[in-house]
Specification:
Layout lengths: L1 H18 L10 E9 L2 E8 L4 E9 L7 E11 L5 E9 L2 E5 L8
Antiparallel strand pairs: 1-2, 2-3, 3-4, 4-5, 5-6
């Protein structure tokens, strides 16, 4: 009887594994990846086979002063589950994080 239960359990596990859809994201590969890091600035960019991409540049401002800060500009893009391509551009600096994108609400 125990052998039959093990076979049933194994069959059930295989059925569940086969029924789970493989998503495009789970098989994505990195197509491009670049990075350059220096003491006062950095850049990075990447792109994957499923349409995700991002790039960012950061630079140290007013180094070694009381007003030292990091100024960052970047963007990322991906396709949502609804099939729409979403892109977000942003700046982050002494004024905070400032995103912009067609899908974001605009304050009135």
């Amino acid at each position: 009887m125990e052998g039959k239960i093990n076979i049933l359990a194994l069959t059930a596990l295989v059925a569940v594994a086969v029924a789970v859809p493989v998503s495009e994201d789970s098989e994505a590969v990195v197509l491009k990846s670049d990075a350059d890091v220096a003491p006062d600035a950095y850049n990075y960019a990447y792109e994957t086979s499923n349409g995700i991409s991002a790039d960012e540049h950061g630079e140290l401002k007013n180094a070694d002063t009381e007003g030292e800060s990091l100024a960052v500009q970047g963007q990322f893009k991906y396709t949502g589950p609804d099939g729409v391509v979403y892109q977000l551009n942003y700046v982050a600096d002494e004024n905070g994080f400032q995103p912009s994108g067609a899908h974001l609400p605009v304050p009135s």
